């Protein structure tokens, strides 16, 4: 059970979910439930993506043409919407990961113990 969050507190910074979705789709096309499971498993259960967050993120990615979707039949014989990353999505992901890595480097520098001056 997760502890209650303070009002307005977010688990992820803006854009993090979209980066994780794009990276997951870069590995292979997936439907929504598979994306939720993939992110949970790849994060060693540290991240729990809720449908209420995932599907709006997927809609934003579709609108921005960073992913495309097709209806397919799953292994359990159900209709599922499968998402694939586009060429524009790959370029966008590369830019966002680069920005994230620079931000993380800056945070690390600020949090590191100060060296003797």
Model description:
With 117 residues, this protein is α+β, with helices and mostly antiparallel strands. It has one domain: Arc Repressor Mutant, subunit A (Orthogonal Bundle), CATH 1.10.10.10. It contains 4 helices and 3 strands. Strands 1-3-2 form a 3-stranded antiparallel beta sheet. A hairpin with a 5-residue loop joins strand 2 and strand 3. Helix 1 crosses helix 4. The longest helix has 25 residues.
Briefly, what is this?
The chain has 4 helices and 3 strands, in the order αβααββα. With 117 residues, the chain is of the alpha+beta class. It has one domain: Arc Repressor Mutant, subunit A (Orthogonal Bundle).
How is the topology of this model organized?
Layout lengths: L15 H12 L2 E2 H11 L8 H13 L3 E7 L5 E7 L1 H25 L6
Antiparallel strand pairs: 1-3, 2-3
Terminal Cα separation, in Å?
A: 45 Å
Kindly state the percentage of residues in helix.
Answer: 40-55%
Identify the CATH homologous superfamily: Winged helix-like DNA-binding domain superfamily/Winged helix DNA-binding domain
**Radius of gyration from CA coordinates:** 17 Å
- Overall CATH class: Mainly Alpha
* Second rung of CATH, namely the architecture: Orthogonal Bundle
For the residues shown, what is the average pLDDT?
Answer: 89
Give a short account of the largest sheet. 3 strands, antiparallel
Shape: elongated
What is the number of helices?
4
Low-confidence stretches: 1-10
Total number of domains: 1
How many beta-strand runs? Answer: 3
Summing up helix and strand content along with how strands pair, one would put the structural category as alpha+beta
Strand percent estimate:
5-15%
Strand and helix order: HEHHEEH
The CATH topology is Arc Repressor Mutant, subunit A
Major β-sheet strand ordering: 1-3-2
